Amino acid sequence: MRVVIRIPLSLLTVLLAGLAENAAAQTALLDFTREVRPILSKHCFACHGPDAEAREADLSLLDFESATREIAPGIFAVVPGDAEASELWLRITDADDPMPPEAAHDELDESERLILKRWIEQGASYSPHWAYVLPRRTTVPPTDHLVDDFIGHSIDELNLHGLASAGLEPAPPADPVTLLRRASLDLGGLPPTIRELDAFLADSSEEAYESVIDRLLASDHFGERFATKWLDLVRYADTVGYHGDQEHRAWPFRDWVIRALNSNMPFDRFTIEQLAGDLLPDAGQDQFIASGYNRLLQTSHEGGVQLMEYRAIYMADRVRNASEVWMGATLGCAQCHDHKYDPFTTRDFHTFGAFFADVDDEEHLRKPYDGLNSTPTRRSPEMQVVNDEAQRRLHALEAAVATAERHLETETTELEAHQEAWERDLSARLANQTPVERIWVDDVLDTGGRLQGDWSFDRLPELEPIRGESYRRQSSQGLTQHYTVDTTRTIAVQPDDRIMAWVHLDPSNPPKSVMLQVNIAGNWEHRAVWGGDQIAYGHQAEDHDGYRRMGDLPKLGEWVRLEVSANRLGIGPGEEINGIAFTQFGGVVHWDACSIMADTVAPAAVIEALATPPSQRTDEAKHTLRARHASEAPSVLEAANRHRVSLAEVASFDAMLPRTLFTRSLEIPREVRILRRGDWMDESGEIVQPAVPAFLGDLKPDGRAGRLHLARWLVTPTAEGGIGELTARVFVNRIWAMLLGEGLCPSVEDFGGQGRPPGNLELLDHLTLQFIDSGWNIKALVREIVTSDTYRRSSIPTPTQFDVDPENLLFARQSRHRLSAEAIRDTALSVGGILVDRTGGPSIKPPQPDGYYRHLNFPVRRYQAAGNEDQWRRGVYVHWQRQFLHPMLKAFDAPTREACTARREASNTPLAALVLMNDPVFLEAARGLAQRLLAAENSPDDQRLDLAMRLATSRHADPEEIRVLRDVLERARRNFAESPTSTAAFIGIGASPIPTNLDPIELAAWMQVSRTILNLHETFNRE
Amino acid sequence: MNELPRHILQEIERVNRRQFLGSLSMGVGAAALSQWLPGFGSPSATADGLLLPGRIPRAKRVIFLCMAGGPSHLETFDPKPQLSALDGEAMPASFTEGMPIAQLQGADLRCLGSRATFSKHGESGQTISNFLPHIATCADDIAIVNSMVTEQINHDPAHTFMNTGTIVPDRPSMGSWVNYGLGSINEDLPGFVVLTSVGGRNPQPIAARQWSSGFLPSRLSGVEFHGQGDPVHYVSNPPGITSDCQSHLVDAVRDLNRLRAETTHDPEIDSRIAQHELAFRMQTSIPDLMDIKDESKETLEMYGAVPGDGSFASNCLLARRLAERGVRFIQLYHRGWDHHGGLKQYMDICCRNCDQPTAALIQDLKQRGMLEDTLIVWGGEFGRTPMSQGGGADPGRDHHIKGFSMFLAGGGVKGGVTHGATDELGYNAVDDVVHVRDLHATMLNLLGLDHQRLSVPYQGLDVRLTGVESARIVREILT
Asked: What are A505's strand-pairing partners?
């Protein structure tokens, strides 16, 4: 849920003043940041705030000086100490002409008016907005033992201090089961195993807890769990988002985030690599992948997009995202006008956007029709991703190329010795006119060009190839065709040349007909058909070049050569074949070498060179003869073929390597103009250079500032010219919110004036500075928080806590909340014992309802659910289709990731209940759980029921719960015993094998028990 | 721990619900209260402070017929003899210079006269083309707006703009806004239902974003009902599980959840129990609702619907059934209107799919006395250029945003009027221009909502469906 939570200011006042008497509150000195500024921001700043253009009556209430200035003769908005003389007070209480004006529908309530009055009377003192004030060190003794054990915890001291001033008592510590479950879900996104529970319950000493935390921090699950949060922020997804929502290749970025978190990359480095990894002097593959951050935005591959419009849209998107992710700022709001509430100007928006003007990302806008309407689409520039294993394989393949090359050289050299003999032989053949065969395709398709159909070459044990190493095996239900066309290697033919291909027709399943076809200069109308008339291409009653009947099918069960002369297919002398197609109707056909047999023994140039006496031959003539010799020598042909195959293997491995988008910097960045009112068609605005928001400083770069400057500025301490402390505070607050359910600053998405001030700023500041001191150490920060008593408290509130701090902004207790969508999936799979725990790789597609993608087009989509064990992997790896997110993830509030999501909602809807009850994935998990329960042989029912509860909720069942579950079990046993077909259907769900050693009725009955447990609130709640 | 006093429990519940809903500002009055309650909202919730003072809402619900792809105004409601006279001639540059252009960027721009013939219909004598003979019979019931303008020229953003009033991601769709403002009528059904139809030409892609609640609570999101297959995802029992069996499961889950609530006092558990029970009821009620076999033969014929065919005709009939059961906002998408080429051919196909069912829906609601409090809106995300696109015997038209047509009917809309006009070539809306945000303001007004007050604070802004610019209620077409 990304909505700013507002509580009535009166409540906030009470909250901060504790349970003090009203009278005391009336005289207490107001805190400008917490009590006054929010009122001014909400009701006044729209017209009397930072946006100079929108300013009314030339009055700004932003600072003391402006507010107390004489705005008209004898008129002052604020006269410090004298409310009755202040125009502000007079107007907000003026029934006839009130402020804010009636038309604004923005009336102040009584308590707000009185606060403003008291503020004026107390001297109208201002203080700068808290989020732009540097974090301050508090008097808490410095703790430099981030990772060591220590006594006394600074978080707790500051937290207790905050509680005391509000008159609150901390909640008691959580029980060990709750605590272990909480830490396991928070740090790894999975519930603890029984073994982990038992070990912890046997020793819940401080040391035992800390070693649990260390185990959780060291697990790969840590990165998977925390990545989810980060991926929401940077809006990572597997599809482009707009219009056709085609897939793009971004998953290596997701893996990079997981790796970076698991290897505990410092947050400053983590920041720099994403915003500008490509610009680092030592940039390697990982830094380029990280720089993919700049490409994660939604893109449109719709025909008819206007370049300048989308350029503006993309820039705004990048500004919105980067400013929200790292600065907790809504800089995006300053696109059309100066920010209404924060000191960001429209110029700031554009200068910030200019940092990204070098991101090369416009191919799809410039060439919308260039095949980009396909899926996966191309997001140029893309890079290959080579992991260690791939690197080894690539080395091996390249070594094979080198070997083949040497072999070819040797064979070619050895021919020299036989050159004269060959020339004599050629002369003899010329006399006899013996034909020569030129191989075009054998064992590998290396002609270049476009292709269709499966061109994989194969070799089955039961059939030896007739030529080379392999052949293609093609089985067909009807008409099937393989072709290659627009080849870069072409072959010129003479009318008498024969076009040939070897075939072996399976006698047990022969085709109805087979066809050879060639393409000459784009024309496919050259076909030869054997067998029946089933192939429709070119088919006419009378034979023609485009359909030549060659008679019956060749003999079955042996290698036979199909051949047809060029002139029968209407091919003229010297015409070049640049494409060939193999077609069959039905059956199984093995296709081997395709070649051209020339009845002319040699081309004219060869004959002429041969006729020239050796002493008079030019170098060219000698070369012609040697080349011809090589082209006829079996040993060289063999070596050349092997060489071709080895090259093709490198090429095909290369093509199979994953690709991903990354950031490439344009040599000349795009020009960025201030677009007035955000209008992209207005080209009259001033051209601006990259710069940070003016009120936050100036980069003073040598030359043009770039993304690297921006990234470094974000994580450099103020003393050295950056805003590192502010950035760190935004991040620390996010981590706190992940672990305590709410941020220390509750508006995690907005640290600006319209956000909510922190309930305990001292604690936030303290953690921020400690985080920077630790070297931006994320795991140390997490450890620091989860080892505090504050983290370990019970989440069950006391009445007083509810009265004073209903939203738990001061953290007297822990929070209780539903798990994230991914954690719900992972928990169900894990409890069911079917979770496949493997990190990384392309996104996976679990089953989803049929036809869910019916609204996608360009191209029409068909969802192919993973048939293998990938379907049981963790939620963080699930394919993220922005327009149609997997219905299970969506039902549990996973965001579409069209934009930055800083806070997820935790809704409670019937659609989510339907998922838990009926989604086949959850049923499969239930069957898995049933199998686990039944695996304990001779175990009494009650013991199994207790185990089930423990697996799902980590705690033992109480007797009353056992009674309910036993009732479910017995009733299910009776029902399933009556209907074997229902039983079979029920246990047959999903893709995992059905155990055959279990009584189906028992399995079904326990599955129903498991379903019950996988529908409980507690199973998917973190407490 | 000890049993908490009852008033504390109520407080916990109140606060938790607020947290759960997230904070829609306290200033919106009671509107939101309906949203904290289990189910899709409480029946007959009203929205003090959002409702227009002293005004009785004219419409209780909306059926929005989204003609996705953008139908041509020049072949439906907006005849332009001058354009026909210039057929094949160059489009005067004075119209097109400096204007946004979609697929015709860099192309030779030529006029394409209307492929339709127009005639007067009804007592009001409204001008409607021969492509829409059935809608023409409703001429006296509909208000045609011939002066629509929008700001987005490509489909996806244009739909987003039509539905949310902006292209900024993550903003609520109008169905979510309306349900936020008014609450639900039937707590057992979603207040915002979307149906899409099959048939016609290569369909527009349409994103679930179009019916998303954006930053509003997800229970306000449009729920897609499917005309074919499971009407709602996961609404069918698992194989081998009878309704009885499922009912036992829901009971057991309730009992166990209640036991847990006794120890934890977590009010969210009550909500969970309610959601499970509602989900179970939906498993019966939604398939019943979606099964149109019990409709009379006359009704099926009037719409041209064949049960289970997933057509626009079936969906129009389903829209009536949803409206009868109290669904607040119903959106029907037909995705075949993007006629870049083959304009005549595809107008024939699309109008055959959509014309009769639309007219049937109007007539059917009328004869059931429901038209007076049901607002119907018909139109696309934009119109089409007066310029031709593609050659051949049957060229098409490109996307066009500076002038196009929509119509409204029922729910307080005056019948038999035509509002606004484009210029002589049908390029720019020139008289009584109606911007998308004016349409939104008008729709909200008919529902009794003040478009200026229907706002939610989000990321520092008071966000409205009509945005920050001023919007005008098109009073000329209201009764």
From this structure: A589
Domain that holds residue A327: 242-385+664-706
Residues 6+ apart with CB under 8 A from A49: A40, A41, A55, A60, A61, A62, A340, A341
Using CB atoms and an 8 Å cut-off, which of residues 271-310 of chain A contact chain B?
A: 298, 300, 302-306, 309
Q: Which residues of B touch A856 (CB under 8 A)?
A: 205
Residue A372 lies in a domain: yes
A978 lies in a domain? no
Name the helix (H) or strand (E) containing A493.
Answer: strand A491-493
Residue B20 resides in a domain? yes
- Which structural domain range is residue B171 located in? 6-231+297-477
Digit-coded pLDDT (tens) for B194-227: 999 987 777 778 888 899 998 888 888 999 999 8
Which residues are paired to A502 by β-bridges?
A: A561, A592
Q: Looking at the 3D structure of chain A, how many domains does it have?
A: 3
Residues A247 and A378 in one domain: yes
Do A379 and A451 share a domain, yes or no? no
CATH number at residue A564: 2.60.120.260
- How many other C-beta atoms lie within 10 A of the C-beta of residue B286? 20
Would residue A824 count as lying in a domain? no
With a CB cutoff of 8 Å and minimum separation 6, the contacts of A813 are A170, A171, A793, A794, A795, A796, A797, A798, A801
**Confidence check: pLDDT of A143 > 70:** no
Phi, psi (degrees; rounded to nearest 5) at A869: -70, -10
3-state helix, strand, coil in chain A (%, to 5): 45, 10, 45
* A802/B8 CB distance under 8 A: yes
| Maximum separation of any 2 CA atoms in chain B, in Å | 87
Per-residue pLDDT tens digits for B32-56: 333 333 344 433 334 444 556 556 7
pLDDT in the model for residue B377:
98
Q: Is residue B257 part of a domain?
A: no
Tell which of A578, A600, A622 closes a domain. A600
Q: Does residue A304 sit in the same domain as residue A372?
A: yes
Q: Return the closest-CA partner of residue B51 out of B172, B181, B173, B174.
A: B181
Measure CB to CB from residue B100 to each of A681, A796, A912 and give the nearest one.
A681
My answer on whether A549 and A676 are in the same domain is: no
What residue type is A922 in one-letter code?
F
Query: Which of B40, B196, B236 is the closest to A855 by Cβ?
Result: B196
Does residue B280 belong to any structural domain of this protein?
Answer: no
Question: In the structure encoding, which two tokens stand for residue A822, read together?
Answer: 């991914």
pLDDT at A140 over 70: no
Q: Do A257 and A363 share a domain, yes or no? A: yes
Distance from CA of A588 to the nearest CA of B (A): 36
Residues of chain A contacting residue B155, judged by C-beta atoms under 8 Å apart: 243, 302
* Domain termination site, one of A127, A155, A187: A127
Q: How many domains does chain B have?
A: 1
pLDDT band at B453 (very low <50, low <70, confident <90, very high): confident
The CATH number assigned to the domain holding B409 equals: 3.40.720
Region A655-672: mean pLDDT is 94
| Residue B195: other Cβ atoms inside 10 A | 24
Region of A893 on the Ramachandran plot (φ > 0 left; ψ -120 to 50 alpha; else beta):
left
Residue A734 located in a structural domain: no
Same domain, A346 and A451: no
Mean pLDDT of chain B: 88
Is B289 contained in some domain?
A: no
Interface touch B218/A1004, C-beta < 8 Å = no
pLDDT-derived band at A138, boundaries 50, 70, 90: confident
Percentages (nearest 5) of helix, strand, coil residues in chain B = 40, 20, 45
Indicate whether A465 and A558 sit together in one domain. yes
User: How many residues in total does chain A contain?
Assistant: 1023
Interchain proximity A851–B209, CB inside 8 Å: no
What per-residue confidence (pLDDT) applies to B347? 96
